Amino acid sequence: MNKNILVQxxxxxxxxxxxxxxxxxxxxxxxxKIYALIGQNGAGxxxxxxxxxxxxxxxSGEVELFSKKGIKELEKQRxxxxxxxxxxxxxxxMTAYENLEAERICRGxxxxxNIEKVLKLVGIDKIGRKKVxxxxxxxKQRLGIAMALLNNPELLILDEPINGxxxxxxxxxxxxxQNLNEKKGITIIISSHILSELYQLATNYIIIDKGxxxxxxxxxxxxxxCKKHIAIKVNDVPLATTVIENNLxxxxxxxxxxxxIKLYDHLDKVSEVSSILSQNGxxxxxITILGDSLxxxxxxxxxxxxxx
Length: 308
What we know:
Layout: E1 5-16, E2 19-30, E3 34-38, H1 45-52, E4 60-65, H2 71-77, E5 81-84, H3 96-107, H4 114-121, H5 137-149, E6 155-159, H6 167-184, E7 187-191, H7 195-201, E8 204-209, E9 212-218, H8 219-226, E10 229-234, H9 237-247, E11 253-255, E12 261-263, H10 270-279, E13 284-290, H11 294-302
Parallel strand pairs: 3-7, 3-8, 5-6, 6-7
Antiparallel strand pairs: 1-2, 1-4, 8-9, 10-12, 10-13, 11-12
């Protein structure tokens, strides 16, 4: 039993009639991190989130929450999860406090004092009797997150929380999410199609396409993959590294497991690098500049155009 693993899925499948929406999803979510769930519309993001939160059920496979499994145990453990899925359901003629009180009663959460705490936490504690109908979209999203925080969750799951927000609203929600993670220690799963914002926010990245997990990597690993470099494949790697060090006067490169050399210098001198390698008796099988933004990396990984 690993107490640092909050969520684990094993061979998770979800089928709607003849359509396989989730295909053998194996996933681990570790305590204290922010996970970005990235995928096109219809990739399976929301279906996965709905299964984790108990709003839907898998066709086969297993879900484990906080090291517990089984229908009754999962029901108990989901009380340790807060979620905002497909936007908050709000009463427009009521205040933020009244909406939270209605949510608290509906969910059977005993601590009424939590309402003031979460209002302060999300930064809408000083708006008085203002009705929700007069809220900006950003304020409504903050209230939705406050609802998800009412039960003091250890895991917070947010589905498209910055969708439709203006640039300032995006920054405010991003800062709020980081604060919840860093100061409150809440583990967070966030799905969004605004990839540039996820790159500034998450510590881990889960890329899903056509119901399959293509990658589950850390920010450091993603930076390594996205960092611009000259990717070189040659017939003699040890000789190539010697030539790079002696003739190009740099040690700023890395040899990968498959023998590819990633050269981080001389990015504007690819032809010169190619000539020097060839002049030293090396056969070049590939030499190209790779690495770019998260969005470019995502598009390359799924092999097509990103549809947001």
